[in-house]
Structures are given as C-alpha cells and as structure tokens.
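In practice, a research group might receive sequence data for several interacting partners and want a quick structural hypothesis before committing to experiments. The following worked case mirrors that situation: the sequences arrive first, and a predicted assembly follows.
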Amino acid sequence: MFSEERSAEVVTASFAGTRDERLREIMGALVEHLHAFIKEVELTEAEWAAAIDFLTRTGQKSDANRQEFILLSDVLGASMLVETINHRAGGGSTESTVLGPFHMVASPRRELGDDVALDGKGTPCLVSGQVTGVGGEPVPGASVDIWQANEDGFYDVQQPDIQPALNLRGLFTTDADGRFWFRSVVPKYYPIPVDGPAGQLLEATGRHPYRPAHLHFIVSAPGYRTVTTHVFVADSPYLDSDAVFGVKESLIREAPTVDDPARAAELGLANPFRTLTFDVVLQR
Amino acid sequence: MFSEERSAEVVTASFAGTRDERLREIMGALVEHLHAFIKEVELTEAEWAAAIDFLTRTGQKSDANRQEFILLSDVLGASMLVETINHRAGGGSTESTVLGPFHMVASPRRELGDDVALDGKGTPCLVSGQVTGVGGEPVPGASVDIWQANEDGFYDVQQPDIQPALNLRGLFTTDADGRFWFRSVVPKYYPIPVDGPAGQLLEATGRHPYRPAHLHFIVSAPGYRTVTTHVFVADSPYLDSDAVFGVKESLIREAPTVDDPARAAELGLANPFRTLTFDVVLQR
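A structural hypothesis for the assembly, expressed as tokens:
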C-alpha cells in the first residue's frame, strides 16, 4: 500500500501488467525519477498546483503553427539530449544538433551556386563545403538541405508578408567531388518565441531567449547515416548560452570577409562578401 | 558546452541567475531527474515525439470542468506523494489522502442527524464518529465537511440531470463531545474519467481506472491542523489497487449491517441499514 517511503515502488508495481515491455521500462523509470524529484525538493501543494497550471497552459498554447511543449523540451535541454543520444557521432563524423521547428516546408531544389537569398537583403555570404565519409572518400550526389534565418533573425515562415516564400532555403546535390556551394546572406541570432509558458520560464529564471546565428543542414546520401546539424557563425553572440543548448564546439566556423572584386564578380556576389566553409563527414 | 555527459550540469548552470532561490532549487532538481530519466531509458526520437504529443493532448483535454493534468498526476501517484509529504501524520493523528476533483462546490450546512441522500436512493447508512485531539480531548465545534459518490458511483456534479444539486454533501459541526453523525447511503467504487490521455495511459499499461468506495472528509477546528482524508469501505473492491493510490490501511473501516427496526425508526432510516464509524484525530 502507498506510503511516502514506498511510493515509487507501489506505483511502478501498478505498471507490471503492461504488455509492451519497452513502455513498462519507460513508465518504471519515469515514476522512479518523478517521485525522487518530488521527494528531493519536498514539493509543496501550491508548487504542485503551479506546475499543473503551467503544464496545462503549455498544452493549450500549442496549435497547428506552434508547439509549446517542444519549446519547453528545448529550453530544458531535453530535446538536445535526445538528439545527442540518438545520433552519437563517431570516427570523426559531423556532430548533430536539434532540428528546430522551422523545417516545416520542403526546401526547393537548387543548382550549385544558386542564390537562396530571394530578396537580396543582407550581407552576402558564400557557403561551401565537401561531404565525405569518415574514411575521407568524397560523397558525390549527396543531398544537402539547408535553411536559415535572415539578417533580421526571422525565417521566411515567420514573415509571410515580408519575405518571399522559400526564402533562404535550398536542396542541393553535391558534385563529383562531394562538394557543394551556394550564395546566401549571413544569418543572425534570434529569440525563440517568448509569448507562452516557455518564455515565462525563461523570464522567471533570468535566462535570455536567444539562439546564436546558425545555418541548418540535413545531409544524406545512400549508404550513409543522415546527419541533422547546424553550422554556427563564430562571431555571433550567445554561442555560450544558446537558449536551446544546440551549440557544439565542433560546429562553430569563422565567416571571414573577402574583399576581392574579381572573385565577387565571378561568383555573382557584391564585394566585399563573407565566406562560410563547413565540411560534413558522414558515418556509413 | 552541452554534451551527453555534461547535459544536466550545463542546463542547471543556465538557471544560476534565478532570483527566487526556491525556483532555482526546483529547476535544478527537475533538470537532474529529467536528464537522468532520458539517459536511463535512452529515449528514442519517436518516443520523445509521442511524449510531446501525449502532454500536449493532456493540456488540451483540460477545461473549466476537467483537469486532465491532475488526473495524470493522480494515476502516476504524484498527487498522493505531494499530499503525503505535506501532511505527515504524527502522534496518532488521522492520515490524509487526496482531495480529488469533486470538491468543486461548497457543501451545504447541515444539522447533526440530517440525511444527505436528497433523492433517497441507495442503501441507507449511518455515518458517525468523534473528533479528538491526539491527547484524546474531544473537539467540540469542529467543522466536518463530507462528500461522496452515490450508489451508482457518481457525484452530483457528474449527473446534474439525475441527482439533486448538493446531493450527498454536507457541512456538519461536532457537538459538545466532539461527535458527529448523519444519514447517507453506502458509497460505491467508480472509475476515474477514461476518455482522455490519462485513460489511454491506463489502457496501454493494463491498469483499471477504479477507485474503491469512499467518503471524503475535510475536518478542521481552531488550533488544530486541518485534515483532508477519506474513509474507505472495507468490503469494496479495488482497495489494493486504487487507480490514484489514495488508500491507507488506517483509513479502512467495516460498514456492518444493522437489523434493528426500533433503532432504524429512531434514526429515520429504512431497516436494515449499515453503519460506518470514523473517528478523526487532529494534530495541534
């Protein structure tokens, strides 16, 4: 029977008849940790009621265009932990990071060298790299799906009246040497949405809502493990305090300025421009 | 920076600037246990997504008349653990149990001996007891607030078209000897609502949704700690498997049948009737 001492044991026992073995394992561990948490902090009834209210509002803030529980998972580092556990890099392969909520439209197919900045706004940037296997072999024909925020820190879907549809998105295919390159603009840091419970949590705990400047990648090729990741711009603020804990050292790159009118003209970029180089290493 | 090994440490550090010391303590413990849980079960991305969906639906099932997150907390034993931690009985005082979601209307004032079964339906039952302090002193003038389900297992608020308003509720005051008594009917076991995510969890884990038969009490008196509790009927099914873990051994009472036409007539009850005696001991 239930008692303070035996609470987790009693509740876990109630799940003994769960047919799905994995669900039984998960519920047992959940109960153990939930009860240990409540006991450790000796949660008061008022705090419990506040938690119930917070979680209820988090569910109710969510709709077709907003997922507040993912945002809560993000700011608690849970999303990043799940991502990391499920995509352990190895043998020098590129580390993964969170997908984020803005990959909600399919990226349009683009040719190598295309400019994904459809409105031409922002500091021009040449993004390039090579996709290889961990053995160093180039991966031709790899799919490189990219998307990013503009120079104001917004994705196209956040500004349907300001940015052209599919702005700063592209789906590229690597060449015979596994290389990709395209024109874009330098992404900017931006705040996650703060008008819901996750934002209230950040406010109450003195945390800022910003993510450092980054460009999203999903790179895939037959026979290799797909990697979902970002490249972070080295001079961005918030690299040490990403609101969703997505930064890994290995994913930060400098974006040096190039002042070379001839090269700029050749690439079809304004001079001076910046460059961001990100090689991607895939596991078999 | 974030890594699988340092995840909880990094996220906890992000809460270091929390001004409210208690909130900082709670968030630190929450993150420790949440990350330990994810690591222990190596939660997959599909399982994480299922959890996000489950929690979102739990919030969205809640409205003015339904609180699905409380129900989830109940079936995970979290409500009972919080209740138990915050109301540790001592010195022989009566143990507490969950308030439950049906104390949503104020109980009407009743005179000792009144019949709270306004529709006269069910097996008649004389409920009585004495309120004392842990030293054994009677507590006259104590407030005894009671509510219960009817013989079909429903509270009045669940059957507004079938039961009279305020059926099976009463607010009594103990007499000079600390005694209370009233007429009612024997309560019945009943299922918690199963048409939401909490019910789906019970279904998926092979758990039944029933609570054993009980009568709710809130007993209070100046100078004493208020106790929120139930008395459970000893011959009810589900005493060993209450869906919300509310049963404590010390709260179970027999409800013997009395076949005594003279006594029944004196009390104003049909013969035979049952009796339920529950003495309540309050802490100073």
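Before designing any experiment, note the following. DSSP finds seven helices and twelve strands in chain A. The mean pLDDT of chain A is 95.
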